[in-house]
Specification:
- It contains 15 helices and 8 strands.
- The structure holds thiamine diphosphate and magnesium ion.
């Protein structure tokens, strides 16, 4: 084993210092444009999440999951990838979709499950899938994406592609069988995979202390023969740096990396959860002081790229984008009944045609032609 694999990854990698400057030894040295793009994507994510949760409370969509407080992970990892890399996502990184160029309008459509929704209303809200951005469908069962990403990385290796596969999962997902299978396969194969564990302290109501007896989640990497890196998940520059390093390692043929991004889930688990039943306000308030957007704003201001005026304008613009997306989507009808049947098989088998016919008859819509 190499020394990087042996190292006990206890220390948390930080690039952003408390005074808003970057540690010069670790600074990924992003261009001005890149800094502004990252900040804008984080703001758009925060605003979209807030607005969509309100829609759920109003009964206009039936479910939503926010990523509040975790925006630096989705956006920071995305900023270290290229468009040719593949992402096998979970539900807590809408910022990755936005950074990779998915339109808010298309994400809102998926939450409505209407005719603009590319999953035709067949998935729960927030279970996005966007082929053009190399973003695989989000799966509800915990951990399944980890083996998918291992497979994608193994295929890339066999094709000799100069790309990596990146997947996200939570602290709770490290207890799934698929975590073991995925990391084990990728480790043995030396596949170019980046495993990003978003340790937000909770798996619904189960605290991470009850999830594992391991000292850190990054330690688990050692058993699979890959480096485990602990990074401050609320420090977007640290997330970029760790992802860049993992990507380069993957492309050099040295295999996968497990990144444990230490963060905090500011909101409930989902719109169905009431976190006040199992954690204190004090805990949430304390964690809120490490807001990833505020910290990166300070940094951008110090670089002369941001100020209060720009900030206000950006939040207003982000709200406008979401409000327009909602207004437009609310006018779009639900998918046609036939859409349940039409793109399942190249030629509809008689058994399925019969079900469709029965359904149309039941609705008084006549026989299927
Ligand atoms: C196999 C499976 N078991 C249980 C669930 C129900 N479930 C949905 S999310 C979740 C907790 C996940 O926690 P974590 O991995 O820490 O991710 P987080 O929600 O904190 O981002 C559970 C138990 C599920 N979706 N799939
Ligand atoms: Mg969690």
């Amino acid at each position: 084993m190499s020394s990087t694999v042996d190292a006990a990854p206890l220390e948390v990698l930080r690039v952003l210092r408390d005074d808003g400057t970057a540690d010069p030894d670790l600074d990924p040295k992003l261009s001005d444009e890149r800094v502004v793009a990252i900040l804008k994507a984080m703001i758009q994510t925060r605003v979209m999440d807030e607005r969509m949760l309100t829609l759920q409370r109003q009964g206009r969509i039936f479910f939503y999951l926010v990523s509040t407080g975790q925006e630096a992970i989705g956006v920071g990892t995305a900023a270290a990838l290229t468009a040719d890399d593949w992402v096998v996502p979970s539900y807590r990184e809408p910022g990755c979709f936005l950074y990779r160029g998915v339109a808010v309008k298309d994400m809102v459509a998926q939450c409505y499950g209407n005719q603009w929704d590319n999953t035709h209303g067949r998935q729960m809200p927030v279970h996005y899938s966007f082929r053009a951005q190399n973003m695989v469908s989000i799966s509800s069962p915990i951990g399944t994406q980890i083996v998918h990403a291992a497979g994608v990385g193994m295929a890339m290796k066999r094709k000799g592609a100069q790309t990596v596969a990146l997947t996200y999962f939570g602290d709770g997902s490290t207890s799934s069988n698929d975590f073991h299978s995925g990391l084990n396969f990728a480790g043995v194969d030396k596949a170019p995979v980046i495993f990003v564990c978003e340790n937000n302290g909770w798996a619904i109501s189960l605290p991470v202390e009850k999830q594992t007896a391991a000292e850190t989640l990054a330690h688990k990497a050692i058993a699979y023969g890959m480096p485990g890196v602990r990074v401050d998940g609320n420090d977007v520059l640290a997330v970029v740096k760790a992802t860049q390093d993992a990507r380069e390692r993957g492309l050099r043929g040295e295999g996968p990396t497990l990144i444990e991004a230490v963060t905090y889930r500011m909101g409930g688990h989902s719109s169905s959860d009431d976190p006040t039943r199992y954690r204190s306000d004090h805990e949430v308030e304390t964690a809120g002081q490490r807001d990833p957007i505020e910290r990166f704003k300070d940094y951008a201001e110090k670089r002369g790229l941001w100020n209060a005026e720009l900030n206000e304008a950006e939040f207003a613009a982000a709200r406008e984008v979401v409000n327009k997306a909602i207004k437009d989507n609310e006018r779009v009808p639900k998918p046609e009944l036939e859409s349940l049947f039409t793109d399942v098989y190249a030629e509809m088998p008689p058994s399925l045609a019969r079900v469709l016919e029965e359904e149309r008859e039941a609705r008084g819509e006549g026989k299927f032609p």
